[in-house]
Structures are given as C-alpha cells and as structure tokens.
TrEMBL record:
Keywords: Signal. This is Amino acid ABC transporter substrate-binding protein. The lineage of its organism: Bacteria, Pseudomonadati, Pseudomonadota, Gammaproteobacteria, Alteromonadales. It comes from the Bacteria. Residues 1-20 form the signal peptide.
Amino acid sequence: MLLRLFICLCLGSFVPAIFAQTLTFCYEDKELAPSYMGTGLHVPDTRPGVSIEVLQMMEQKIDGLSIDFIREPWQRCLHDMKRNKVDAVIASYREERAAFMVYPTTQHGELNTQLALNKFGRCIVGDKQFIKALASSKQSFSLAIPNGYSSAKNITDERFIKVDTLSQLDAYELVSKRVVDGTIGLCMINEKVVKAFPFAKRLEAYHPPFDTSYGFLTYSKQFFKNNEILAKELWEHLAEFPFAQVYMEYLGFEHQQIDSIIIDPEGSK
C-alpha cells in the first residue's frame, strides 16, 4: 500500500492519450525480484513486482491506455514478439533482438539510454568457498545458467562450464545443494550494490559485474508502427519515474520473503 501511494505521488498527472489502445505486455512466469514477483501464469493481485506495479499505474494515468499482462516462459515471450503476438516486453539491448524489437533511440538513431527503466549489473554468485576459490584458483567451475539469459554470453572466463536450467530458482537450488559451483545473479541496480537473488543470506556475489545492461520497455514492430505516438509517450513517462528508489524500497520490504538484501557500501551510490 505504501509503495502504491509512493508511485501515485511520483507519477502525477499525465496528458491523455490520443485514442484508446490495448497493449499486451509479456513477462516471465518465474520470479525475478524485485521486477517480477510470484511464479506461474497468474499475475499476483498484490505486490506483483516493481515493473508491473508501475505499468499498472501508467495504465490508470494515461487515458485510453489498457494493458493486458500475460506471463509465459521468457523464450516464448521473445518468440511471440517476433510474430507480433504480444506488443511489449522489458528487455536489455541485444543486436539480434533489434531485428524484431523497437528500442528508444535518439534523433541520430543511437540507443537512447536516457529512456531506460533501469541499469542492472549481474555477477557470478556462489557460496563463500566458491567465491574465494574463484579469486585464487585456475581450476574449472560449473555454472548453472537459466534458459534465455542472454547476459551469460558475456561470461568469457574459460574456467566456467555452463549447465542449462529451466529457471533462475532451479539454478539457485542446484547451487544451494552444491550440485554446481555457482550461477549468475542481480548484484547492482542503478549503481547501487544489492544481493537481489534467492538464498542471498547464504550466497555471495563476485564483483565487479560481468555484465552491465540497461532495461528498456520494447515494442513489437507492428505495435510501434501502428501506435508510435502512444509508444513514445509511455517511454517518456517511464523515464521520469524514480525506479532505483522504488527498487530499493521494494527489496527492503520483500527481503524476508525472497531472501534478498541491500548493501550500501561507501561509494556505491
């Protein structure tokens, strides 16, 4: 309730949309705290995640905008975007995705990071023994990588043997049971160090991040072509929202449930 009040105060009043339009937003059916909470095809009625709450508020504030939220495996969301079966996802920039997604760009056609929703850093994650060995040993290590996580392509250390898993939670359970040595996890949000991953009280992140990326609301080619004015308006409003601040508040509230914690060392801001 407090978060929703905070969001309402931040959003203020918006200019009405020019015409009514439904946007179908697809997001992963696995929990990715703090952006998406819960698992399965159902969108939680309460505390569904920061990204979902903010989009729900945008829906209320922009006259004529209606958003249908659907949950699918991440690869299916991407598959449906390619075929214009869904209208939008939140995704980092990848060259291969630009072939079927529309990202915000500048007048010169360059990626406009000023319209990004967030800036995420991802680290190798494991127990203290693994992190210590990682810093000092040349031996090989096994890493559980959830299907569809393109950021894993940026792991160039040849010591790692990658093991595919169906979900982030599956990957962390393998680490917890010591079936594999480590996995990957969200360790930085908008320059602030966090431990936003399962079992964070028992696991550590190896810094610096191996991957830093911006998250954008991206549109299907067809939706953007038919609704360019509305699409750009939504980008602009989302860019004004203080995501970093709300992410921190969300993690602070949810950490007991998702076992994630916030760290604020000197110089992390």
